[in-house]
Structure formats: structure tokens, C-alpha cells
Sequence to fold (164 residues):
Amino acid sequence: MLIRSSQIAALRAFRSAAKPCAFAICATLCATPALSQDYPSRPIRLVVGFGAGGGTDILARIVAPALGELLGQAVVVENRPGAGGTIAAHQVATAPADGYTAFLLNNGHAVSAAMYKALPYDPAADFQPVTMLATMPLVVVAGPKAPYADLPALIAACGVPLST
Fold:
């Protein structure tokens, strides 16, 4: 696998942000009144809805050790890939609300309600936001010989009218 210098720079940026992000998560988890004074007394699962090696997984694996260090307990990244993250989301939505299961999601979570006729969970009501760990740009690219140079030309080439 070829790793570009821009990817290395991004990973270094993630690593430098891992401890502050982990602290924010820790502060939120530890401030929950329902949790006992000895929290956490066992490892915490950080569920990722995508396979190992993707952006969400990489971020989880960078943040988990720092979060574990702050909490004094292991944070285990658990990949549950499939159905655009909905398998993992369902697993987390039905887990006990005891602070031992967290879900690291990406923008696919917001899209899932529009993509699937029925979900076994409510994407908004069944989850409590804790913190945003990262933002990532999405870029549309085409080959150098493609007959379009911008997004409106690409949409027109697809035969979809561009509304104004």
C-alpha cells in the first residue's frame, strides 16, 4: 500500500488532536450522573460501522489509546461493517445505556434514514452526541480525459437537470 505524504501529514494531525478529543469524550462520559463512582470498571467498546483500514477506523484507532489512558481502562475498537454502518448503529442503539458502548460514526449515519425504507433504530433519537472528532472534505474527481471540468458539467453529462 502506497502512503502519500499528505496522508502521513493527516495522520500526524489526527494524532496531535487525539488526546484533546479523548479528553472531551472522557469528560462527557465521566460527567454522566447515571455512572457510578468506579466507572469505568471494565473495557469500553468503541464500535465502528466500517471495515478496518478506512478513515473512520483509523480515527478510532488513534483516539482509543488516548481515551483509554485518560479513563484508566482499555477502549477496544470493534469493527461491525455492513449496510453503510447501520449494522453497527443498530448494535449500539440496542446496547445498554451504561457508558460502556460508544459509536464512532461518519456522515453515512445521517444519510441512512433516506437510503433505507425502515431502520431498526431512530438515527436521531437513539443516539446522544458526545463530540466531533474530525471533519473530512469530500471531493468529486474525474479522469483527465473526462468531457467535464466542473460539477455542473458532470451533472449535465448524467442527464440530470441542474435546478437553480
In short: The chain has a mean pLDDT of 83. The CA atoms of residues 49 and 83 lie 9 Å apart. DSSP finds five helices and three strands in the chain. The first strand starts at residue 44 and ends at 48.
